[in-house]
Write a structure and sequence with these properties.
By secondary structure, the protein is mostly beta strands. It has 4 domains: 165 residues, Immunoglobulin-like; 110 residues, Immunoglobulins (Immunoglobulin-like), CATH 2.60.40.10; 138 residues, Lamin Tail domain (Immunoglobulin-like); 100 residues, Sandwich (Immunoglobulin-like), CATH 2.60.40.4070. It contains 3 helices and 38 strands. Strands 10-9-4-5-8-7-2-1-11-12 form a 10-stranded mixed sheet, with no helix packed on it. The chain has a 6-stranded mixed sheet with strand order 29-28-23-22-32-33, with no helix packed on it. Strands 34, 35, 36, 37 and 38 form a 5-stranded antiparallel sheet that branches. The longest helix is centred in the N-terminal third of the chain and has 15 residues. 33% of the residues are buried.
């Protein structure tokens, strides 16, 4: 008698504490909406729960659950899928989706709640146990496309909207783990970066990847395959794989694997490079592969690049694009096409030879020649010159056989600073990869651009740190023709910067401002003639030169300071 009473008390306690939760709601089916709504539940307990007498519905009306042949016992860690009562005679949409291990139920009514689940009003779903206690509630949102359910992300967490999301698969996941829930084993190729500045045939292209263990279980034995995606289907097929390596690292949930390698022996042209990661038991292989299409030049043959772009001209200015021949052979621009994201045009109807090291400017109006003092053999006028977008555009140079020389997907963010109309976007070095934003910046030329000549931000290699040099020092501004000026030379480890340059006396007073919010290239020079801001020759003695530089896009801020000695001979 005591044992029976104890068992009854334990069973009652289990029922009272039963954690049966709502996990999925299909309120806007893609077909047969009157029959294809469903509600999914899940038993989080370590014991089975009898759902006889339980109710489900909206806040207005709840309907009893009804078994359909498999009984009403929801086993531990089992999903229950509650289908509309009319589903069984009128639809088969979920027959192939519901796994055999799920418990299928229905309701004792023609529709869920009061006249079905609304597609126009957010409703609250209630799950009520046999004792009349509301054990779960969830208010769904209306941002789903038809056929995409609301799914719970973390089963053990609360039912707030931040723990629910739209299903990532059509018709949801009735009776099985939700598509938005973390998977047990899920390796995710998070990033794939090519780390080289130039892509040249025969030269290795280094890369770095980051793979993340996005699943809940620890994994090991990650395999990394590099491949050439010839058919551009973003799949590493057997005949496309270059090399496969295996990592010995063990990755706990949330850990990342960083791997570096290189692509070797590549030929010239547009080539799609890919990396694929894999691990045994991966439940989502759709996030395992990334590719990048790059243009690989051949230094032994022709080369042509986009070197400067004016896509946001000032009033009465013309848009234009400057091209440059960095190769060893001349190119006939008659055989070259220029395209943006909308139009493709031929650059020249007549022979126009661009020799190595030469620039040419293509524009839509001959007024550009007078605006920039371009010579006749530097300017090509195209009557149908495409209108360049001020925020972003995709510019391409290709030959008449559609072999792509260069591609630039610029955005206005590539300026890297605030600019006025009429400021061009310049490449810092013609040999750098034009598809990387860091290889471009706004012109710092006083006129706002440098069409037909060396770019104002040109640099061979950026210095590793900022520096300041003054020569001659001391200097003597006494108008005798000898050391009347001193040159202040600066360098910064960024492509462009905005500077303020001031001179202070030994009491900390500003005597001369040489530059104030002036855009400059990564290196340059200022000249001090020994005069103060009022035009008077300063007194003999030491002066502090302070140059402050910043580049907001690169989060760079520098202060350079040195002493300049002014003497009189």
């Amino acid at each position: 008698m005591v044992l029976r009473t104890t068992f009854a008390i334990l069973f009652a306690a289990q029922i009272a504490n039963a954690q049966v939760i709502l996990t999925e709601v299909m309120f806007d089916a893609d077909t047969l909406e009157n029959y294809n709504e469903f509600i999914e539940i899940y038993n989080m307990n370590s014991f089975p729960v009898d759902l006889n007498g339980w109710l489900v519905g909206d806040s207005v009306e709840q309907d009893p659950l009804v078994e359909v042949g498999d009984g009403s016992i929801l086993q531990s860690e089992q999903y229950g899928i509650i289908l509309d009562a009319g589903y069984f005679e009128n639809s088969d949409s979920y027959d192939n989706l519901i796994p055999p291990e799920a418990l299928v139920l229905t309701i004792d009514d023609a529709s869920f709640g009061s006249f079905g689940l609304s597609n126009s009003v957010e409703e609250t779903i209630l799950l009520i146990n046999a004792s009349g206690d509301t054990v779960q509630t969830y208010k769904y949102t209306l941002d789903n496309d038809p056929g995409y359910s609301d799914e719970k992300i973390l089963p053990s967490a609360e039912n707030g909207n931040d723990n629910w999301a739209n299903s990532t698969v059509l018709r949801g996941t009735p009776g099985s783990k939700n598509s938005v829930s973390p998977k047990d084993i899920d390796l995710w190729l998070k990033s794939f970066q090519l780390t080289g500045q130039t892509f040249v045939a025969g030269t290795p292209i280094p890369f770095t990847i980051v793979a993340l263990n996005a699943g809940s279980q620890t994994i090991q034995g990650v395999e990394i395959a590099t491949f050439l995606d010839f058919n551009q289907n973003i799949i590493a097929e057997t005949d496309e794989i270059i090399e496969t390596v295996q990592s010995s690292e063990t990755l706990n949930s949330g850990d990342s694997l960083v791997h570096s390698g290189q692509f070797s022996g590549l030929t010239a042209g547009n080539i799609s490079l890919g990396v694929q990661v894999s691990v045994s038991g991966d439940e989502d292989e759709l996030n395992n592969t990334l590719t990048q299409t790059v243009f690989i030049s051949d230094p032994e043959n022709q080369a042509l690049i986009i070197n400067e772009i004016l896509f946001e001209p000032d009033v009465e200015q013309e848009e234009w694009v400057e091209v440059y021949n960095p190769g060893f052979l001349p190119i006939n621009l008659k055989e070259v096409l220029f395209a943006d994201s909308r139009d493709t045009v031929r650059i020249s109807a007549e022979d126009f030879i661009l020799y190595p090291g030469e620039y040419a400017v293509i524009a839509g109006d001959s007024a550009a020649q007078f605006q920039y003092s371009l010579s006749y053999n530097q300017l090509l006028i195209i009557g149908s010159f495409p209108t360049l977008n001020n925020t972003n555009d995709n510019l391409i140079l290709l030959n008449i056989y559609y072999y792509i020389y260069d591609r630039v997907n610029y955005t206005s963010d590539w300026y890297a600073r605030e600019t006025d109309g009429g400021t061009s976007l310049e490449k810092i070095n013609p040999n750098f990869n034009g598809q990387i934003s860091n290889h471009w910046a706004a012109s710092v030329d006083p006129s706002g651009s440098t069409p037909g000549r060396l770019n104002s931000i040109y640099v061979e290699v950026l210095p590793t740190e900022a520096s300041l040099d003054v020569s001659p020092n001391p200097f003597s501004p006494d108008a005798d023709g000898f050391e009347d000026f001193t040159v202040i030379q600066y360098k910064f480890p960024v492509e462009t910067a905005t500077i303020r340059a001031r001179l202070f006396d030994t009491r900390g007073r500003i005597i001369r401002t040489l530059a104030d919010s002036m855009p400059v290239a990564n290196e340059g020079r200022l000249i001090w003639d020994g005069k103060d801001n009022d035009g008077r020759i300063a007194r003999i003695g030491p002066y502090i030169c302070l140059i402050e530089a910043y580049n907001a896009a690169k989060n760079m801020s520098e202060q350079l300071k040195t002493t300049i000695i002014l003497v009189k001979q």
